[in-house]
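Q: Give me the 3D complex with adenosine-5'-diphosphate.
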Amino acid sequence: MEIRIEHLNYIYGLGTSYEKKALDDISLTIRSGEFIGIIGHTGSGKSTLIQHLNGLNRASSGQIFVDGKKIYEDGYPMRQLRFRVGLVFQYPEYQIFETTVLKDICFGPKNQGLSEEEAGGRARAAMRMVGLDESYENKSPFELSGGQKRRVAIAGILAMNPEVLVLDEPTAGLDPKGRDDILGVLKQLHQESGITVVLVSHSMEDVADYASRIIVLDKGKVLYDDIPARVFSHVEELESIGLAAPQVTYVMRALRRMGWDVSQDVTTQAEA
Ligand code: ADP
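A: Here is the predicted complex, encoded as structure tokens.
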């Protein structure tokens, strides 16, 4: 699934005295199978942007093409788009309400109209994808740790079989181990299922290790959209918009993973 955004603008409170332009002429394309990190300071427009990807928010102007079809055209199957692009909100565990893990994960697929049995099959597959074994099925979600609850919430979205998984600050509020756990789950999920992953974060380090492309937002605009190594080379610009550059070790790791020789000039390798 390809999502192409063209000249997207979004204004909160249009026509009121609270008018606020949250997205300013955004154009970008999300291709099938990518792992994209979207970073930016608080208020840069990250959440607003991703809420456009599944039609939850409707642009003030501009267009989004999904596999070449305009989504803001009469008759576009918006309900299906909601399922095709799975959105994991910030602190998704607050939306867990069922008495067992399995029931909670079944909620989405049942809402899609699947039978109890089909939904159960989807839910079990989703649990495996996030590394929760069968022993969790009948546990109360409320007994779990923060990181495990978050896995349950992600599984609840995966059970709807999305083609794109979008996560808003999935590591917020977790301790370093919980953070590494969740990011590890996403990395493995991406590698094994080939699902497109869009990860929103205000932390460079979260995305440095996993994304193959980074989009930097500032005041509702795309400031950079490039491979991590090139984005990280703009150290001063990133600091000036409130993003601490990742530690050198992170950058080095990202480069080595891409098979680059870090003893050589990286910019020439980027061009190659
Ligand atoms: P981020 O996710 O990067 O923190 P947001 O997309 O939440 O940024 O916000 C972008 C801008 O839109 C900010 O200036 C924010 O204050 C404003 N904004 C967000 N939500 C609303 C809303 N519901 N009503 C009015 N303004 C909003």
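A quick observation: The CA atoms of residues 33 and 195 lie 5 Å apart.
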